[in-house]
Amino acid sequence: MSAPARGGMGFLSTISEGIGVALDSIGANKVRSSLTILGVTIGVLVVMVMAAVITGINTSFSQLMSPRGITTFWVAHFDFTSTNISVLGEEESDFLRNEPLEPQWADDLGRVPGIRSAAAFVDLSQEGYEASAGSVRVEISLLGAGADYLEIDGGDVIYGRWFTPSEADRRVQVTVIDSAAAVDLFGNRDPLGREIRIGRRNESAIFRVIGVYRVPANLFAGLATHYVWVPFATADKVLRVWDRMVSFVVRPEPETDLETALDATRARMRQLRGLRPGEEEDFAIMTEDQLLELWGQLTGVLFAAMVGLSSIGLMVGGVGVIGIMMISVTERTREIGLRKAMGGRRRDIMWQFLVEASTLTLLGGATGLLIGGLIVWAVNQWTPLPAVVPLWSIVAALGASALTGVGFGLYPASRAAGLDPIEALRHE
Predict the structure, then answer these.
(1) DSSP alpha helices (H): ranges in 30-121?
(2) In sequence order, what are the residues at sequence separation of 6 or more whose Cβ sits closer than 8 angstroms to the Cβ of residue 181?
(3) Which of 91, 231, 282, 425 could form a disulfide with 337 if both were Cys (CB 3.0 to 4.6 A apart)?
(4) In the prediction, which pLDDT does 210 show?
C-alpha cells in the first residue's frame, strides 16, 4: 500500500480526526451542539417509537386473525374493507342503500354443504353499554354472538359454560363475562348464577352469569376489558340492536377449499336476497386476506406520518448542522490555510468536515435510539399497546442520521475545501 501524498491524510486518520474534532467541538460548545443534534434526536426517536408500535400492532393483529383459522370469512350488507367511512352517512353509500341482513340467515348458511358453522354477530363495544351488580358499575364491551361462537373465536371458557343453542333460540337472558368483569363486579365472590344489569341510558335488562371467558391474547383484548357476551337473539330482542350492525361469521369445514366455500356462500346469499342472475349483489363477503390488507393500509398511513414527522426533525437538525459547521469553518480558517499550504488535498479537507458533520448527527441519532428504547420499554410495561423494535428501524435511523450529516454538511465542507490558502493564512 502506497503512503498518502504529502500533506494528505489516510482514510482512517481522516475519519478519526474528524470524529475527534467533532467531539472536541461538542465539549467546548455544549449548548450549541446540544441544540444542533436535538432535531436529529427527535427525528430518530419518532422513527423508533412509531416503528415499534406499528410492528407490535401488526403482529398482534395477525395473532388476532390466526385463532379463527385462515378459512374464516365474514358476510355483511356492505363491504367495510373498502367503504370510505366519511361517506357512511350519505344516501349513496352501500351502508345505507343495501338492506340489512336477516339474523336467521346464519342458520341457512350453516346448512350449506361444506360450511361447518355460521353465526350472527354484533359488536356493541362502542355503544356505551354498562354492567352493574349492586352498587358496582363498569363500562363494558358488549357482544352478541351465536351458541357456536366458541368454534370460531378461539378463546376459552375458564369457569362455567357458554350458552346453549336452546338458550340462544329461546332468547334466554344469560351472559358470559370475562375475568376482568368478574373481578370488578363481584370481587372474590363466585360470579356463576349471579345477576347483572346490562344497559345504557334508561334502558337495561337483567342477565344471569353462566360463565367466565378468557379472550384470545391480542392487541384488542388488551385495549378493551370487561367483555360481556350475550346470545345474539337475546341482544336483538332485549337491547334493541340496530339491524345494520349485524354480520355473519362463517367457518367452512376443514377439508373444504376456501374458494369453494366462498362460492357456495355467495350462491346461498343471492338466493336469500332474491337476486336474479346478473343482478348486482347487495351484500359483501370478506376474507381474512382483505382484513389484513385493510389493516396494512391503515398502518401505511401511520408509517407515512412517521416518515413526515421524522423528516421534519432531521431537517431541523440538518439546518443546525449547517450553522455549527459554518462556525467551525470560520474558527479554523487559519488551520485550513496552513494545511492547504503544506499540500493538503481538497478532498481530504472536505472529507474531514463531512465526517465531523456526520459524527454530530450520528450522536444525535444514538441519543434518539437510547431515549426511544426507554419509551418503548415504558409502553410495554405500562400500556396495553404492544411495541416491538424492528431491526430495520435501528438501521434506518442511524443511516438517516449519517446521511443528514453528509447532506447538510456538504456546503460547509465545500466552503472549507475551497478556501484560498493565502487568504486563509491571513485570517485573524
Answers:
(1) 30-65, 94-97, 105-110
(2) 131, 138, 140, 225, 226, 227, 228
(3) 425
(4) 94
